[in-house]
Structure formats: structure tokens, C-alpha cells
Amino acid sequence: MNFDFSDEQKLLQQTARDYLEANSPLATCRAIFEGDQSYAVDLWKGAAEMGWQGAVVQEQYGGAEFGHLELAMIAYEVGRSLAPIPFGPSVYVATEAIIRFGSDAQKNMWLPKLAEGSVIGTFAFTEKPGQNGPSRADAAVSGGKITGTKMPVADGADANVAIVAASEHGEIGLYVVALDSEGVSRTPLDSFDMSRGQAQLSFDGAACEKLDSADEAGIAKLLDVAATLQAFEQVGAAERALEITREFILGRYAFGKPIGAFQAIKHRMADLWCKIEIARSNAYYAAWALANNDPELSTAAAIARISACEAFEDTTVEMIEFHGGVGYTWEYDCHLFYRRAKLLSSSLGTPKYWKNLLIDRLQAQAAA
Amino acid sequence: MDFNDTPEEAAFRTEARTWLEANAQPLGPDDEGRNMGELLTPEIVSTAQAWQKKKAEAGWACITWPKELGGRSATPMENVIWNEEQSNFKLPNDIFSIGIGMCGPTLLTHGTQEQQERWIPRLLSGEDVWCQLFSEPNAGSDLAGLRMTAVKEGDEWVVNGQKIWTSGAQICEWGILVVRTDPTVVKHAGLSYFVVNMKSPGIEIRPITQINKAQGFNEVFFSDVRIPDDQRISEIGNGWSVALTTLMNERQSIGSGMGIGALEDLVQFASEIEIDGEPAIDDSQVREQIADYIVKARGLKNTSLRTLTALSKGLPPGPEASMGKLVGAVLQQEASSFAMDLAGTSGALLDEEATPASAAWQERYLALPGLRIAGGTDEVLRNIIAERVMGLPSDARADKGIAFRDIPSGPPS
Fold it and tell me: In whole angstroms, what is the distance from residue A317 CA to residue A334 CA?
């Protein structure tokens, strides 16, 4: 038994950390908040040169074919650095969907470009407030043309291709839509986390291609994979937020001593540490299930997602609180984490949604 | 990342399983882990001793301990495998958890060869049961503030004072004891560590009745108890450092023995209970609350897999081991309260016949406050994580740098 990442995987993680520390300090994230670019273009290209976008793409399609455990390590570092790039939507969902469900022609068409980063992919599955999953879609397909509106779509203004959930003959399926096609219009939306773009996509008879093998179970599994990988991103970001908070409370003095010496803060720091470790362990287990194609992924991914969302969000809430007044300023970095936490727990469906899903799945397991 | 055995590990597992199958009964679905504070009848004690002896004779007792002392000199990974295999069998009450889990490792770390040869073989084979004499009425979380005194007279120490929360003191042959040998120095520096024979003249044991009426713990009174100096572990004044070895092993063993698996039963429990004619499990608040509990319980289980991996690589149990008890105990307490609430007005019962499904939760709810305190309160554990894991400053201490006898101890009671 070895419930840990291998030395090679940890080395890859260290390489990713070194690269991101040099190329994606928090100032890079902040620059997207404050500037005109919607994502860090150079960083995206650099990541592609490291093979990250093609981490699970087969070599025949130009991918690095590292594997999902390696991608989990990269995701962790992307999270730690709050890298302002469309990594999750493009890599965990769009690329994964085409690998899982695409025909040879679709793979040949999209995977090499996704792997080299010249194409950004995204996932368009919800349409209006209150929705969490792709189980309902008013967007409809008829005769190879899609009509309807999707929002919010992560990085929808920058993406080149979208995997869109839509209904045809009363059934939900996934469709590939090239976003430069005729009949596609995009409206950027203001994002809660300005380092990550959001948009509305409207389709008016735009050409689309079905991912034929994406049935209901397949779509659920795609989201489980994405939730697992994103959990690593969340745990990585939570760990960094806790480190920054620790540094701050050691350096900030009040009543003659560092505020980190007060139990009112120490004990809450210990609780956050526990939450992050719980989330980390749950993410590990989901990664194991993913890499081994184990049916336990359906519950493990939900568990990983729920604990990762809560660990990251709770850490950032306390991060601002422990910083005191300065934590509430634009100038300090706390809000970069605070915003990213909520962004990641909203995308892919909220913890509330996944908790209900988890109980459904546990009940199904017990009945089987 | 895998859960597979190497060929050597697989061979070891087969050997372990084969022996267990020949010598123990498989675990049934209703067999639960040990309950803190269960009454130790002579029958329970002799069954446990017989099992331990059987293991020792076959070389399956305390397998990581040195072969020369009766162990197997097994690797940490082999120990992980042995524990996994053993957990599939119905075993007698573990009356040796303190001796084997805490006293033995302390003796192996700090005892002389002579001391190890004197005590370890009989401890390992179950002939002697051991207990721990650390806490005092005025020294719980502040253990180093303990007041029991030991004064040297020739080759002996004369010990006076009171210990408390000693599990199983009546059935024990030996106990590990921390006492104050020098009140004129700062509190941590004045302690020494001894092994005491529990049948010594001057020792009186009184059971304590817990809130659930169980009597797992005792008060132990020492009146002029004489302990030979050759039963002292490590140097005079080094008792605190030896005690820390014991405590770290204690948290590890309490944390790993928690029955968080029971939380998964909440799904079934809430399916059978109805709220306004509908199964409680169909209520989204109920679903989400149960999901929260299961997510944490699985998180602890998965963390223990990470800890096992570290142990199997020969890394020591770190302060991280404190997390299992900190998170797990309050989790079980909250989940038990939630299950009682699901039972509606029947939560007012503790009647196994009238409400068999919820009685176990009510029992747990009464047991859990003790688990949150035993082996370090939640607050002490948070301090340990904050200070030793996260490197945050230690608490300001009013007794720092002061000779023990000058430390304020509160108004007389």
C-alpha cells in the first residue's frame, strides 16, 4: 500500500511550483484584476510549453500523456498560485470530454490544439440562476444546429470551443461548438473573481457536433473527474491562504505580542489546518479512484469536492478576519483568495448540490 | 498511489490471515469496537489474557518489538498489514491498549536493557496488565503541574499523593507513574518517571462512576508507597521528556480507535425514520447534514491511510495524529445529537427494546464527552496543532521560570 504520490509525481509538482513562483506571483493575478487582459496570456503559453494543458492527452494527439495523478499535482500548484488562466474549464472539462467521448475525427480536430494551448476550451452547462448541473437544458439541437443561451460560461469570452449541454429528442447530450461559428454571440459578464472571466453564450442555429458516447452516466463521470482535479486546485489555494495568514499573524503585534499567540486565533488556525488536511485526504482518495478507474469515484469525487469547497472558503473568510482592517482593503491580497474560493465552489455546482448528489449515490450503492 | 501489496507484503498478509483464521472468529456485522469505560469482569480479563498469550506464543504479539524480547522485529508496513487483518476478526476486549500502546513503547525508548528484559516479555504475553498514573485532581491539561511527591530514602523512593483517571487500575500488576521529585525547580524540571507495582502496600484504588454509569476509571491514592530506585525510568528530573513519549503514543492510539464508521449508518437510520409521513432522508436539510458528517468521517479515514503510509515508511507518528481525536470526537458527538433529534420525541428515551435503532446513538452521546477530554482536551489538541505543527507561539505562562513550590495554585477547596 502507498497512499501517497510518487517521488516522480512530487518532482513534477515541484517543477510546477518553481515555474509558477517565478511566473505567477500574486501580482500576476492582481494584474488581471486591474488591467485589460482577461487572462494571463504569457502564462498560458508557458504552461502549454510545460505540457500542462496536454497532461492527460495521448501523445498521438500531441499531448504529454502524464496521467491524472500528475495533472492533480499541477492543479494543486495552479491553485496555490491563483494562476489567472482558463486552466480548469479547458483542461479538466473540455479536453477531458473530447478524450472521453470524442470520435477520432473530433479528437484529431481539437486535442492537438487544446494540448498546445492554441485553443481554449470551456464547458457551457447552465442557463439561469439556481442551476447546478447539466440535467436540464432549454438549449436545443436540431439537424446539427444549436439554439439557446448558456450562462455563466467560464472564460466564455476567450474560449475557442465549448462543450455545450443541450437537448435533442428530449435527451440531454454534449455538443462541441466552435465559438467562431456563425450564429454564436458572446457577451462578457462581470465576474465575482475578476482574474477569471465569465460570459453568456447565445446560439442561434450555430453548427454543432454531438459527442455521441456522452450519455447521462458519462456526463456525470466527466463532472466527477473535473470536481476531483479542481479539489486539488482548491486545497492548494487554501494551503497558500493559510500560509499567508500565518505569516501575517506572526508579524502583527497587539497587546505586546504577536496576535498569533492568542488562543482565539491559534485555535481557529488549528481548525482550518484540520479542514485543509481532511480536504487533502479526500482529494487523494478521489485521485486514487480516478487513476484506477474505480467505481468509488462517484462518491469519492463528491466527498472531495464538498470538503475542498468548504476548506478553501472557510480559510479565506478567516484570512480576512485575522488580517483585521487591512484584510478588507483592495491593496492586500486576501480578497483575491476570498473571491477565488467562491468562484471555484460555484462553478461545477455548489456544495449543497453535491451533498444531495452524494446521498443519492450512497443510497444507490446501498441498494445495489 | 495504490493499495496493492508487494509480493513480500502479500506473503506476509497471507501468513497473518491464515493464522488468524485458524485461531479467531471472523467479525460479525453487529460487532462494534471497544467501549470506553466498560466494566472489566474477571472473565473479560482472563479471555483477553488467553488471547494475548496465544498470540505471543505464535510470535504475533507486539510484532514490531524486538525479537529478543518476544516480538517479531517486524517492519512498520508489516504492522499495518497485521492490524488490517486483525481488524476483520472478533477479538476480546483490548485490556492491553495502555500497556502495549503506551507503556511498552516508552520502556523501549527510555528503559535500560535490564528494565526492558524485566518487564517487556510479561507485558507482551499478557501476563501483566499495565496502567497509567499521570493525571491528578489538580493536574489535567497542565499535567506538568502535578503534585504527587517522591522522596528518596536509601535505595527507595517514598511516594505520597493522588492520581486520577487511571483505567483498569484494579486488574493491573504494574503502572507507569510521573511524580515530583524536586519542588524547588521549575515545574517541568522537577519530575521523574517510575514503574510502580500496583500491589504495593499503601496503594488504594477507588472506582469513579461516569455520566453513563460505567466505571472505567479510578482514583488511586498513594500513602507512603515505597518504590525501589531501580524502577526509575531515565534520570531524576527527566520525567517530563519520558512522559511526552507516552503521551504521543496515547493520542495515536485513541485517535485510531474511533468508531467513525458508524456515521455511515445515518443514511439507513434516516431512511427508516419518518418526518410527517415521509422518510427523513428525503428532507434536503437532513441529507445535507448527513453528507457533512460522512464527508468528515471519510476525511479522517483517508487521513489515517496517509498516516499509515507514513508509518509504513518508518516515519514517526507526528503531532498530526492529534487531528483524528480532535475532529472525530466532536463529529461523533454532533452526529449522535442529530440522530437523537431525528428520532423526534423518542430522543427522550434510552431504551434498547422500545427504540433499538436509536439507542446506540443515545449511548454514544453519553460516551462522547469523555472522549473529547481523554488523552488531551480539544483545547489542548488545538494548542498542539497550532504550536507544533503550524509553529505559532506558545501561550503566555504565568508559571514560567518560577520554582514549582512558588506557583499559585488557586484558593484551597
Answer: 9
